[in-house]
Amino acid sequence: MTKQEARQQLEALRDELNEYNYQYHVLDNPTVSDAEYDQKMKQLKSIEAEYPALVTADSPSQRVGGEPLDAFEKVTHRVPMLSLGNAFNEEDLRDFDRRVREGLATETVTYVCELKIDGLAISLRYQDGLFVQGATRGDGTTGEDITSNLKTIRSIPLRIKDASPIEVRGEAYMPQQSFLSMNEAREANDEEPFANPRNAAAGSLRQLDPKIAAKRNLDIFLYAVGEWESGSLETHSDRLEYLQQLGFKTNPEWRKCEGIDEVIQYVEAWVEKRANLSYDIDGIVIKADNLEAQEQLGFTAKSPRWAIAYKFPAEEAVTKLIDIELSV
Ligand SMILES: NC(=O)c1cc2c(=O)c3cc(F)ccc3oc2nc1N
To answer: Among 7, 101, 188, 279, which residue's beta carbon has the most beta carbons within 10 A?
Structure first.
């Protein structure tokens, strides 16, 4: 095979494998058998072995990186990654809504409600369509570069159609099933089990060896845009739809709510439905939908004034109580 033929074959195989990966891990709708996927991957790797110069950053063979790192580099978030203020009951939610309406001098606010994924806040940066850097929130201004670990998350696209620089944010998490089977394996090896999926996800993303992170079956839901020069959308909900069009995994349960009464209905519905999810949530995030309204309301030193997190009553407090009772 000539170098030109190899280049063409590799491009076709990359596109095919990245599309299969998207259907399987983002849409949860596999279109080929594992055997067929593995066969194509083997073909790609053998041509890349023959022509190493033709390996590209978005090749599916590059998901599980090379050598373990000695340490994580620091990353500065030019747009700070802040944390959300909390609401614990209906009164807190109504107080939040009153502050927003007063700040905007408007009667009713359109909100977007999202499930609050109980994981790790993550930032992904794309340049010329390529995934170039991934980082933790850290202290909001300085995070850790964990690009090699994030590349192992199959639902993160290595390339997107939009070539303009864009930073997207989301929550990396460990699905409950992965958590249970990982802890079974750890206990079989006399290793300390993780307390909960959130700690397991944090521990996995802090591994210096990406081969370990690759085995942890982590996943991610994207929910916001950080830096984005060419951004021209008017609402947060438009941004969620744009992220989905770009090939990112967004959580399908978000809803637009007109006014705080609809928000409270959404929250109450999920107190019940939460138990049926295949991943942990610790609350509901409520955001003013209009981006100009967000701009007008701005931020306190550590949180947006245009969003709040309604926290479910802590479940682990109950299990801890039971553990104590059982242990006496
Ligand atoms: N865990 C989550 O599922 C989740 C978390 C955040 C944030 O932490 C968050 C922090 C901000 F300063 C602003 C918006 C946010 O939106 C968010 N939206 C979500 N869905």
So the answer is: 279
